[in-house]
Amino acid sequence: MHWRSGRIVFNPRLGPVPLELQRMLPPNINPKALSSYRRYPDAIVGFADHVLMVEAKIIASGGAVGMMEEYLLLWKQTTEYGGLHKLPVTAAILTALTDPLAKQIALDHGMQWLVYSPGWILTDLMSSTFNITPPVVPGQASTLEARGQQGSSST
Question: What is the CATH number of domain 7-117?
């Protein structure tokens, strides 16, 4: 992925501030104060002939495709980012690991599927931050066994 030739905007806010939030504001507060509530993809990359809209997930699911569909709709209502609106938009899901079902959903929706797996990613995935399997501690029951459920533990 070589995007150096493009203009990269990280976390670009898309669409208007939701009307429901605007109605809750006191009269003396500008609705732009709520801009952090606008949805945003991870990046847009403006090239000479098109815009690449990117949603990045370490492990992408079909939910990323749904989020991208929202972003594509909101792009049409966005007034920022100058002449990029005159260019065709390509949507891409960027992920470190491929879930075949998520990939098929993205491709069925006309999106690109991009994989970037730096060397540190597997180490991170096996860390306590991402590891959702409870550890097996000798002499203690696993979380599933403690709840009276059937299941096997892995180390």
Answer: 3.40.1350
Percent of the chain past pLDDT 90, that is, above it, reads 50
* Distance of alpha carbon 65 from alpha carbon 93, whole angstroms: 7
Strand partners, 90: 52
Residue 58 near residue 95, CB atoms below 8 Å: yes
Q: In sequence order, what are the beta bridge partners of 57?
A: 95
Q: How far is CA 30 from CA 22, 43, 45, 64, 143, in A?
A: 9, 26, 29, 31, 50
Please tell me the pTM assigned to this model.
0.75
Distance (Å, rounded) from C-alpha 93 to C-alpha 61?
A: 10
Q: How confident is the model at residue 33 (pLDDT cuts 50, 70, 90)?
A: confident
The string of pLDDT tens digits covering residues 52-86 is 999 999 989 999 999 999 999 999 999 889 889 88
Whether the CB-CB separation of 5 and 36 falls below 8 Å is answered with no
> 3-state DSSP call for residue 34?
helix
Domain ranges (residues) in the chain: 7-117, 119-155
